[in-house]
Amino acid sequence: MSQQGPDNKSKDIWTRLGQTLKAGAETIVQETKELTKIGKLKVELMSLENERSRKLEELGRAAHTLHKTGAMLPPELFELLRAADDIEVRIAEKKKEIETVRTEPQTEKPQAGQDVAPPATPPAEPIEAEPAEVVVQERFFCGECGARVEPGNVYCGKCGAKLQ
Question: 130, 163, 132: which is closest to 146 by C-alpha?
Fold first, then answer.
């Protein structure tokens, strides 16, 4: 049984601590990349959904106008219907992309000389924030010129009048 000196034990502890911190940092970087990718896809998805809403609004107006006049449906209405269908397909594709990103396995790179596996971290859970406390701040104004003054001021910074 070999004995380690105090310096070797200290060095071993610092080495393990460094490896643990490095593994944690790599996990955070990987999760940040994933969340960024999902965020970008969600922005694209919202854009497509907004575009679809505009097309459906146009479609609704056109159909309503035709209904009011009793006219036959023109080719423009069919073009709007086709455009809305195309957007629906693109929305479904974006939703699949988001799901793919969420389910992709995280790649772990082995570190040279590391004999301890980095701790497995569960997927990030959304953080539920408590409602922020509302702080009501009183505002004070100069009686002479109406300028805003800070509480505790004796004189107005704008006109120099003595405050009450």
Answer: 163
Distant-in-sequence, close-in-space partners of 150: CB < 8 Å, separation ≥ 6: 140
Higher-pLDDT residue of 34 and 143 is 34
What pLDDT sits at residue 21?
94
DSSP assignment of 65-106, as one string? HHHHHTPPPPHHHHHHHHHHHHHHHHHHHHHHHHHHHHHSPP
Mean of pLDDT values over 50-68: 82
Residues in the chain: 164
In this structure, which long-range contacts are made by residues 122-128, counting pairs with CB atoms below 8 Å and at least 24 apart in sequence?
124/31, 124/35
Residue 34 pLDDT: 92
Could you give the CA distance from residue 86 to residue 90 in angstroms, rounded to a whole number? 6
- Positive or negative torsion for Cα 91, 97, 100, 101: negative
Tokens for 32, please give them: 């940040």
**Are 42 and 98 contacting, i.e. CB atoms less than 8 angstroms apart?**
yes
**By C-alpha distance, which of 121, 127, 119, 124 is closest to 32?**
124
The two three-digit tokens of residue 116, written as one number: 């301890």
